[in-house]
Amino acid sequence: MSIEKAAQILKRARYPLFLSGAGISAESGIPTFRGKEGLWREHRAEATGGRESRAATMASMRAEDLATPEAFQRDPALVWQWYNWRKRLISEKKPNPAHFAIRDIAHKLPNLLCATQNVDGFHALAGLEGVLEMHGNIFRTRCLGCSDVRENRGEIDPETLCVACNQAALRPDVVWFGEALPQNILHTIYERLHVCDAIIVVGTSGSVYPAAGFAVEVRRREGYVIEINIDETHRPYANDVYIRAKAGEALPQICALI
Ligand code: BJW
């Protein structure tokens, strides 16, 4: 029933917006940051069979502790260790049916604007074009001196100097707490939010801003909010469609009905 309603809303929407979070990649085997399933902590037990190891230490790290400019300033080697570990993990996995379904939905709804908080690049890998990566991409580096940004899929030694200026060290090209999101991306999203009549929010706990405010803004304008999450995240609103299911199960069903 809610799957059908979601498909109907999306088909009728003039200015739809799609927002994904870590939960959409959970079925690919990438642990989420928060939520009842797939915590880094749970991944730790799986990865190590209970034995303590470097992987265990990495898996128990929290975004709130490491995804900050202060953490990087304090201990760049530790932060790079965490990112190198995650880059390896993501490289071994691939997009899942949820990523392919949203690519197909975007083909059917050419006016769908797609944004993600994820840094894994899986939407693009699944063939979704023009996706706005709000929090950057884990497979890019940025020079701390000249700001040169480039793709780098390998492990980064914290001592490595930028190849462009050969003077400064590198950081992951992602957005940490307290940092501004890319201006052009935010601008495009807010332009859409001003007219958005339906937002579909998939696999995010809604605890990190500004993304957490998008559904609030659409509700304020009396647009529809469709949420796909295995967990309860908000209190019910009249215009909302809640789909308590795995993204990889719900999105292909919605796609088939559009
Ligand atoms: C499934 C599933 C399945 C599982 N199917 N579902 C207003 C109020 C209060 C605070 C703030 C505010 N505005 C800004 C702030 C501060 C801060 C913030 O939000 N703090 C909060 C903790 C309150 N925000 C910022 O600092 C942001 N910057 C900013 O606003 O700048 C302003 C500024 C302007 C001008 C100058 C300077 C500054 C930046 C936020 C950056 C967040 N970065 C991270 C790390 C990125 C790099 C990396 O990956 O390492 O982004 S933190 C981390 O959280 C990551 C994620 O993108 C983000 C959100 O997590 P997400 O995607 O929601 O994942 P989870 O794990 O939380 O949820 C997964 C969900 O999936 C769960 O609900 C599961 O149930 C579900 N699920 N399996 C469907 N199969």
Protein architecture, described:
- It is a single chain.
- The protein contains eleven helices and nine strands.
- With 258 residues, it is of the alpha/beta class.
- It folds into three domains: 2-29 and 94-135 and 178-257, Rossmann fold; 44-91; 139-174.
- Strands 3-2-1-7-8-9 form a six-stranded parallel β-sheet, with helices on both faces. Strands 5-4-6 form a three-stranded antiparallel β-sheet, with helices on one face.
- β7 (198-202), α10 (214-220) and β8 (224-228) form a beta-alpha-beta unit.
- The longest helix is centred in the N-terminal third of the chain and has 16 residues, at 76-91.
- Residues 41-52 have low confidence and may be disordered.
- It binds ligand BJW.
- Ligand BJW binds next to loops.
- The site of ligand BJW has 37 residues, from loops.
Second CATH tier, the architecture of the largest domain:
3-Layer(aba) Sandwich
Q: How large is the radius of gyration?
A: 19 Å
* CATH topological fold name of the largest domain: Rossmann fold
Please give the domain count: 3
Strand fraction equals 15-25%
Residue stretches low in confidence (pLDDT < 50, at least 5 long) are 41-52
Q: Which structural class is indicated by helix and strand composition?
A: alpha/beta
Helicity, as a percent range: 25-40%
Overall residue-averaged pLDDT value: 91
